[in-house]
Design goal:
This protein is of the alpha/beta class and 519 residues long. The chain contains 14 helices and 21 strands. It folds into two domains: 293 residues, Aldehyde Dehydrogenase, Chain A, domain 1 (3-Layer(aba) Sandwich); 190 residues, 3-Layer(aba) Sandwich (Aldehyde Dehydrogenase, Chain A, domain 2), CATH 3.40.309. The strands form six sheets. A seven-stranded mixed sheet has the order 14-17-18-13-12-19-20, sandwiched between helices. A five-stranded parallel sheet has the order 9-8-7-10-11, with helices on both faces. Helix 3 packs antiparallel against helix 5. The mean pLDDT is 98. The structure holds nicotinamide-adenine-dinucleotide. Nicotinamide-adenine-dinucleotide binds next to helix 8 and helix 9.
């Protein structure tokens, strides 16, 4: 029997013993760096001569690990293994499948700091951000384990029909292409993959090129724990090649993707094309970007609002789909709030995050990201007023550091107010009043998260009705969704609104079979 789900508590890094434990986990992970990792197909470790390096973005010469540069041929091999494995895995009872997740969660909890330390080194997360990422991964495992057991019980769902014995079964779909991003490198990679397999599907799982090491560690929790061969196949390599073939393959039944709008819309199109020999319409679960806003009116607690703006904009270097990259502030309090935001931003510590728990802002993930973000900053100096930051920070090791950057008086038409930058760049926007602020907030192609700071009940009620985002928060930051408490997924170009960590999520990984037997 499973105990009720409870979110995993976060680590209190003000306690010296927690700091010491984390520092020693970092040292342990450092001793593992630089090894070579294979593909895993049908339980077999397949080493390839051709590899690519995952590197520490704070010190790009530091290689985290060398990963197999897979190709379309490997995808086809994995597809064959996953198709065979599906024939037995689909009949394994849901409660039995759930136990693999619960066991993996227990192991991840025991080795929590190791998983978090891996993300500090591989993607430059601060200790607190990495700890939250691992906690979220544990939450997904525990939550989906319970959800599949609930979904398997259809009693009470159907209208009584006395002359028949009725049943509604949520059965798995088939082989799934699971394609996560690098930013919630443990949480999303774990969440999408575990949802897939606990629902009875088998997976071709391709982590992002920037974060294969943490995914490898997650995979090991399953492979070393008796998961049948072929259920979870691990493929690394270029997204367009390996991911591209996974999406295209006629035997792919479901594509679960989280990443950029550009790649997501391309996958949507490709998955819609029926390939020769394909017997179904592919299911797609596509979660994409955001241009999220924190809205502040003149009745708000301005100090709290300013703190939330800074946390939403700069947590993990602004590299969250939920990042509050726009602060929309009504004119009467605009100068006051911006002043407080600047004051807090000046206190932000930037550096290699393995230095300590107090380093808030690490590097951006790679050189491409750095160049893209610096391009937007250059554009911002034409579109708005640079109030803070704006420069790359040079370090002897050539890390990808960018100052937390704030633009003021950014017009709603500006590209830096409309396009996802995915870096530490905040656009402050002046609104005439609350009406105008809400209008600006909704004037976007996206619709993922949003926050409103106000003490006016009528305005909050109006935002409930009119602020068109999948995750709406009042008087708190717009990042930090908790599994089970804040089902997560957006509207419009933010994706298919799958609501990860919510009660409906696993249904997307199944199809319903209605059975009636005449009595
Ligand atoms: P990305 O789109 O570059 O890559 C995502 C994944 O897709 C990676 O595994 C990549 O290798 C793979 N890929 C790349 N090209 C492919 C192709 N042609 N076919 C198949 N797969 C391909 O995104 P990213 O840089 O890893 O992640 C950042 C993006 O993810 C941001 O836009 C962010 O907003 C978004 N995101 C959204 C959510 C959400 O829940 N809505 C959560 C986290 C991140």
């Amino acid at each position: 029997m499973l105990m009720p789900y409870r979110p995993e508590p976060l680590t209190d890094f003000s306690l010296p013993e927690n700091q010491a434990a984390f520092a020693s986990a970092l040292e342990a992970v450092k001793s593992e760096l630089g090894r070579v990792y294979p593909l895993v197909i049908n339980g077999q470790r397949i080493e390839l001569e051709e590899t690519f390096a995952s590197v520490n973005p704070a010190r790009p010469d530091e290689v985290i690990g060398y990963f197999a540069n897979g190709s379309a041929v490997h995808v086809d091999q994995a597809m064959s293994a996953a198709s065979d494995a599906f024939e037995t895995w689909k009949h394994v009872p849901p409660a039995e499948r759930a136990r693999y997740l619960v066991k993996a969660a227990a192991e991840m909890r025991r080795r929590k700091h190791e998983f978090s330390a891996t993300m500090v080194l591989e993607i430059g997360k601060s200790w607190a951000e990495a700890d939250a990422d691992t906690a979220e991964a544990i939450d997904f495992l525990e939550y989906y384990a319970r959800q599949i057991v609930r979904i398997a019980d259809s009693s009470g769902l159907l209208a009584p029909f006395p002359s028949e014995q009725l049943d509604l079964q949520y059965i798995p779909l088939g082989v799934s292409a699971v394609i996560p991003p690098w930013n919630f490198a443990c949480a999303i990679a774990t969440g999408m993959m575990s949802a897939t397999i606990v629902a009875g599907n088998t997976a071709l799982w391709k982590p992002a090129e920037q974060s294969p090491f943490i995914a490898w560690k997650v995979g090991e929790l399953f492979w070393n724990n008796g998961l049948p061969d072929g259920v979870l196949n691990f493929l690394t390599g270029p997204g367009e090649v390996v991911g591209g073939r996974m999406v295209e393959h006629p035997q792919t039944r479901l594509v679960a993707f989280t990443g950029s709008r550009e790649v997501g819309t391309g996958i949507y199109e490709k998955a819609a094309r029926v390939q020769p020999g394909q017997k179904w319409l592919k299911r797609t679960v596509l979660e994409m970007g955001g241009k999220d806003a924190v809205l502040v009116d003149e009745t708000a607690d301005l100090e709290q609002a300013a703190a939330a703006i800074v946390a939403s904009a700069f947590g993990f270097q602004g590299q969250k789909c939920s990042a509050g990259s726009r602060a929309i502030i009504v004119d009467r309090v605009y100068d006051n709030v911006v002043e407080q935001v600047l004051k807090l931003t000046r206190q932000i510590t930037v550096g290699a995050t393995d230095r300590g728990a107090d380093v808030y802002l690490g590097p951006v993930v790679d050189l491409d990201a750095l160049n893209k973000i610096m391009g937007y900053i250059e554009l911002g100096t034409e579109e708005g007023r640079l109030l803070h930051g704006g420069k790359r920070i040079d370090t002897p090791e050539g890390g990808y550091f960018i100052e937390p950057t704030i633009f003021g008086d950014v017009p709603r038409t500006a590209r830096i107010a409309r396009e996802e930058i995915f870096g530490p760049v905040l656009a402050c926007m002046r609104a005439d009043d609350y009406d105008d602020a809400l209008d600006i907030a909704n004037d976007t192609d996206y619709g993922l998260t949003g926050a409103v700071f106000s003490t006016d009940r009528a305005r909050l009620e109006r935002a409930r009705r009119e602020y068109h985002v999948g995750n709406l928060y009042f008087n708190r930051k717009c990042t930090g969704a908790i599994v089970g408490a804040h089902p997560f997924g957006g509207f419009n170009m933010s994706g298919t609104n799958s609501k990860a960590g919510g009660p409906d999520y696993l249904l997307l990984f199944t199809q319903a079979k209605s059975i009636a037997e005449k009595l």
